[in-house]
Amino acid sequence: MASSPPKKTLNSQSSSISRPPQAVKFGRRTSSGRSVSLSRDDDMDVPGDSSSHTDYINYTVHMPPTPDNQPAGSSGSTSDAANRGGPRNKMERRLSVMKSNNKSMLLRSQTGDFDHNRWLFESKGKYGIGNAFWSEEDDNYDGGVNMSDFLDKPWKPLTRKVQIPAKVLSPYRLLIVCRLVVLFFFLWWRIANPNEDAMWLWGLSIVCELWFAFSWILDILPKLNPINRATDLDALHDKFEQPSPSNPTGRSDLPGVDVFVSTADPDKEPPLVTANTLLSILAVDYPIEKLSAYISDDGGAILTFEAMAEAVRFAEYWVPFCRKHDIEPRNPDSYFSLKKDPTKNKKKHDFVKDRRWVKREYDEFKVRINGLPEQIKKRAEQFNMREELKERRIAKEKNGGVLPPDGVEVVKATWMADGTHWPGTWFEPKPDHSKGDHAGILQIMSKVPELEPVMGGPNEGALDFTGIDIRVPMFAYVSREKRPGFDHNKKAGAMNGMVRASAILSNGAFILNLDCDHYIYNSKAIKEGMCFMMDRGGDRICYIQFPQRFEGIDPSDRYANHNTVFFDGNMRALDGLQGPVYVGTGCMFRRYALYGFNPPRANEYSGVFGQDKAPAMYGRTQSGASQNSQASDIESDTQPLTDDPDLGLPKKFGNSTVFTDTIPVAEYQGRPLADHMSVKNGRPPGALLLPRPPLDAPTVAEAIAVISCWYEDNTEWGDRIGWIYGSVTEDVVTGYRMHNRGWRSVYCITKRDAFRGTAPINLTDRLHQVLRWATGSVEIFFSKNNAIFATRRLKFLQRVAYLNVGIYPFTSIFLVVYCFLPALCLFSGKFIVQSLDIHFLSYLLCITITLTLISLLEVKWSGIGLEEWWRNEQFWLIGGTSAHLAAVVQGFLKVIAGIEISFTLTSKSAGEDEDDVFADLYIVKWTGLFIMPLTIIVVNLVAIVIGASRTIYSVIPQWNKLLGGTFFSMWVLTHMYPFAKGLMGRRGKVPTIVYVWSGLVSITVSLLWITISPPDDVTGGGGISV
Questions:
Q1: Please, what sign has the CA dihedral across residues 114, 118, 122, 125?
Q2: Where in the sequence is the signal peptide annotated (predicted)?
């Protein structure tokens, strides 16, 4: 500690009454910044007799000794005046404290700690202590305080919650309660007032309305607490990529990320689309040495393999170009298709030249990709012809120079460019070379990048990359082994194979899962997600789900392909509970959570509505798991559901010790930074600065071994570990199992869309896509993954949301019946109520108004448009009467008869008309899913005609029943309008089968009704006179 400069003392004037020395001075600070002393001043001339009642009346105000109000007088004169014992003036009294020799009184408070406020206003320092000014003379002060204490920036969180405004959310919740009350009284009135004239109509309508009310409650309850979130990328950069005592070089301390892309069929998922997705990944804004990309080709197609090799070669120019000019988006096809000015906000003089050169290279790249099928076939023909000539020559040598009578048989193989057989699927399938029977393939096409940046030069392929890092992240092509007799579990099995292979090769603590047609639209998307994982409490997050955004959708979004009601409404609301569901793509997982482990901390919710929260007890679960270690060979599906097997510990990872050794490493690297006392389960700064070990032949061989078809035998892969098997919607089940263990997830909506992809705009493809989703939901309902059997770690409203996932397809049964009710009313001349009295109309009006207001407020807090909401309502009816109904039938067939469910891979290719980007929209491909919606349309149209005819020609027309039936029939037809428009095709070209089916239904319905209710001579009851 440097000694303080000597302070001159000021002798106090003797008082008439001796008092003990005062060690503490009391004061307050005024609004003007002055310090007001409220202490008894020994130097004040106060008579002893009156001191008792004037001690705190007389006080002294003294100014802080800042440079602009330093004392005018010299210290010597002040001291002389004090020694003379004469009365002191105001300035001398102001300096009484400053001249005190009691240093502890100045520097410390009553608790003994350093008193910053006192030092600021009563010390010799000119401005006190802080990061704005520091005296060079007094480098250290009493208490160990120095300038270094103020150099570090204050701790900042990486994310924050943005609450929905109360002026929107409070009325929204109030209206939900009001509609619940109105629904209750309406249904009570409906049950208490049956229609005696048409009990069958009344009964059908009551059952449907009760189910609709139940379904609406399941859908609306999880929406009570929607929230928004925001990230701070600057804070992430300051914490993990800035020089610090633990990171002197400023190298990135972020954890590793492995990006998975899955594809299966190059005919339905064009290799050019997959290659563009890969290029957007390799060019992402994330530390290059921490990023790895993997392509899972489940078809083992050489076309995909060759296309990925071409993409890696093009990436050597594309990736540095993106970094140099800050290109967005970094998918070359999307970037060069932008309609806006490409030079906007570009400042480097060589941008136009570089862009023109890269555009030409990309055009050549596309031509090479498009020509690969023909090139590979020609190569195969040449090599097969060479092999045939070789075999003929050998046969002649063995047969005395003559060919055998039966000729020479040569296998028509598929060849690689180096003259070797392709180990995957051949063009002409053969044993060991077909889609379901081929060897495992793992090819590292882009090596592990160096730890330090590699700067380019002025002549990097006609481009100037001076000062630009030209490294490319590691990339590996993976095609798992497939053999007959093994259940390969479709996409879930492919993803688990990549999890194991990537753990051995790169072992990124986090995994980003993308479909082959979903590319990275925001180059900082991974960092946005990392803000949540690395923030306080991030160790409890199992995955970050990003919304799905689509390109190539028709402007009117006829079939609600954008699905904004779900992604901006339902998912945002679930984020306010335990987190959004996993939707299959655009999701960043914590690798440790995928391995089936429990979160470091979790809560259990008890009570009827889960209102009682308590910390989960891990000791009991782990001890129970250890006690049952001897019975670990028992399959988990034989255990009763009440034992909650999800809460145990995973044990069976397979026989690869190299893989199991990576598990604790991945867990440690995924922890948040322990830079604040509130961060639990953190890691020290600078722990991830070491370089990645280089890959060698034994490591790659081990990675190939873990993607073999037999590796998962007698393991927990697919049951507890990794993606869960047993459902065509493995994504929802996988997310549910994580939430069931107590993990939580986060919904990350970025200002610039994180990812973008394609969606089927054709009606048939769209319905088949919805059919697959609904079929998976039915499977969930009939499985142990039903939310009814969830653990107490699942919040009540989160349980309701997952319960709705399994129940919503069953609404189709009641929806189909309800769509036929208006037609039945028009046919019979009856209605669902006895009469359109004031009670029915009042209830109907209240329900409609509350539903409309709730929808408007939901549109307000979710940010969706009214047209998007209306399209969603229309397609809900279309999908509910077609795909959902078929899914329920398939689900019952699987449960009752054991018939497996198959689904068609969604095509990513465009229509035949290359000039029209929406050509697929007008293609009509007949499917059985059209039958029920078409029947509903035709029956309602015929019913309107019959009902109108009966009423017009009736002696006593009942217009109220006609209006009621016609109104509800028009409600059905209005919702079916997009379906009817889709059947018309381009320019009204309706397929012949639609006319045939419509006429058949019309004739059948008319004849059926005439048979059931033949016309008679009495017309008063509603019959038609003949």
A1: positive
A2: none
Percent helix, strand and coil across the chain, each to the nearest 5: 45, 10, 45
What is the model's pTM?
A: 0.81
Q: Is 557 a catalytic residue?
A: no
For the chain, state the CA radius of gyration: 38
Are 505 and 252 in contact by the 8 Å Cβ rule? The answer is no
Instruction: Report the distance separating Cα 164 and Cα 583, nearest Å.
Output: 24
Measured distance CA(69)–CA(98) in Å, rounded: 14
Q: Taking all residues of the chain, what is their mean pLDDT, rounded to a whole number?
A: 81
Q: CA-to-CA distance for 476 and 493, rounded, in angstroms?
A: 18
505 in Cβ contact with 695 (< 8 Å): yes
Q: Mean pLDDT check: name the lowest of 357-361, 848-852, 890-894.
A: 890-894
Report the alpha-carbon distance of residue 946 to residue 958 in Å, rounded.
14
Q: Taking the mean position of all CA atoms in its chain, how far away is CA 125? A: 54
| Crossing angle for the helix pair 302-325 and 271-282, to the nearest 10 degrees | 40
Taking residue 418's Cβ as centre, other Cβ atoms within 10 Å add up to 5
pLDDT band at 132, cuts 50/70/90?
low
d(CA 591, CA 580): 18
Task: Give the model confidence (pLDDT) of 491-540 as tens digits.
Answer: 999 999 999 999 999 999 999 999 999 999 999 999 999 999 999 999 99
pLDDT at residue 640 greater than cutoff 60: no
CA angle 486, 492, 496 (to 5 degrees): 85
Task: State both tokens at 617.
Answer: 């007890």
Q: ∠435-436-438 over CA atoms, to 5°?
A: 75
Q: What is the average pLDDT across 125-135?
A: 61
DSSP assignment of 327-387, as one string? -SS--HHHHHT--S-TTTT---TTHHHHHHHHHHHHHHHHHHHHTHHHHHHHHHHHHHHHH
Of the residues 253, 258, 285, 298, only one is catalytic, namely 298
| pLDDT band at residue 155 under the 50/70/90 scheme | confident
Amino acid at 761: I
Which single residue is written with the structure tokens 């690395």?
534
Helix or strand (DSSP H, E) at 1: none
**Distance separating alpha carbons of residues 37 and 829, to the nearest angstrom:** 94
Which residues make beta-bridge pairs with 60? Answer: 37
Amino acid at 541: I
Q: Which residue has the tokens 């005190």?
A: 100
Q: Tell me which DSSP letter residue 421 carries.
A: B
CA 547/CA 525 separation, integer angstroms: 12
Burial class (CB in 10 A: 0-12, 13-18, 19+), 906: middle
Which of residues 694 and 960 earns the better pLDDT score? Answer: 694
Residue 180 and residue 221 in contact, taking contact as beta carbons nearer than 8 Å: no
Q: How far is CA 642 from the centre of its chain?
A: 31
Under 8 Å between Cβ of 192 and 186: no
Q: What percent of the chain has pLDDT over 70?
A: 76
* Distance set, CA 771 to CA 727, 882, 983 (Å): 13, 8, 19
Q: What is the spatial distance between Cα 758 and Cα 680, in angstroms, rounded to a whole number? A: 40
The pLDDT-based confidence of 600 (bands split at 50, 70, 90) is: very high
Instruction: Return the residue matching tokens 């370089």.
Output: 691
Tokens coding 893: 């067939």
Q: Which H helix or E strand runs over 735? A: helix 730-740
Question: What is the reported pLDDT for 1014?
Answer: 61
Tell me what pLDDT residue 86 has.
Answer: 47
Q: Which residues contact 41 (CB under 8 A, 6 or more apart)?
A: 58, 59, 60, 93, 96
Which position among 731, 753, 765, 920 bears the catalytic label?
731
Q: Please, which residues have CB within 8 angstroms of residue 955's CB and are 6 or more apart in sequence? A: 1019, 1020
How many residues are there in the chain? 1026
866 CB contacts (<8 Å, ≥6 apart)? 859
